[in-house]
Design goal:
By secondary structure, the chain is mainly α. 66% of the residues lie in helices and 0% in strands.
């Protein structure tokens, strides 16, 4: 996932790939290409989520549990 690409866009692409793979209409070769792309997107999304988690942990300096509400789209 390119750094400039938003998490939501990558997740949407990943969902579409899953739909295509589950449809059973792709050839073996195309299925493998889609699977590879999906794995790249999945890894990128996971990295972005981990980055967000680290930022939240830094923001919670005092170590006390706090309710953090993120607006949708962030």
């Amino acid at each position: 996932m390119p750094k400039a690409e938003k998490f939501e866009i990558s997740l949407e692409k990943l969902e579409k790939i899953v739909e295509r793979l589950e449809s059973g209409e792709l050839s073996l070769e195309e299925s493998l290409k889609q699977f590879e792309e999906g794995m790249k997107l999945s890894k990128g999304c996971e990295e972005r989520l981990n980055e967000a988690k680290k930022k939240i942990e830094v923001l919670m300096k005092d170590g006390k549990r706090q309710k953090i509400e993120l607006e949708e789209g962030e």
